[in-house]
Amino acid sequence: MGLVSTLSSLSSFRVSCYDQIQNSYGIYSVNNQLGPAYYLVLVATYFKVVDILAHLIVPVPVQGYFGSPMDDGEEGDEAGSVFLQEMS
Predict the structure, then answer these.
(1) Residue ranges of domains in the chain
(2) Reduced to 3 DSSP states, what percent helix, strand and coil does the chain have, rounded to the nearest 5?
(3) How does pLDDT run across 26-47, given as a tens digit for each residue?
(4) Distance of CA 51 to CAs 41, 46, 70, 72, 82, Å?
(5) Which of 55, 61, 70, 84 has the most crowded CB, counting CB atoms within 10 A?
(6) Rounded to an integer, what distance in angstroms lies between the CA atom of residue 38 and that of residue 13?
(7) At what angle do helices 36-57 and 2-16 cross, to 10 degrees?
(8) Dihedral sign, CA of 76, 79, 82, 84?
(9) pLDDT value of residue 85
(10) What's residue 88's pLDDT?
(11) CA atoms within 13 A on the CB side of 73
């Protein structure tokens, strides 16, 4: 969701603000450029894609679903046992 909203905001800024700036005001000329902040936000936004892919690729340990990492799985892990039996 953040990826889409940030890309939408950057696109809206470019179309509504940056592209609408005139190149000259009377006798003054203006050199329009997108600054480093715009490009850094754009790069950070694209890193969100890498983050999404990493979340999809990296598996979550089964024990992480049902207890703490220090849990040995013997006491109070009925839900985990049922889940593992259903998966087998």
Answers:
(1) 1-57, 61-88
(2) 60, 5, 35
(3) 888 888 888 999 999 999 999 9
(4) 15, 9, 27, 31, 32
(5) 84
(6) 10
(7) 160
(8) negative
(9) 55
(10) 55
(11) 12
Q: Which residue has the tokens 């006491």?
A: 75
Per-residue confidence (pLDDT) for residue 81, from 0 to 100:
54
Which residue type is seen at 69?
Answer: P
Residue 28 has φ and ψ, to the nearest 5°, of -100, 135
Backbone torsions φ then ψ of 32, nearest 5 degrees: -80, 125
Tokens 């190149």, residue located:
23
DSSP state of 28: E
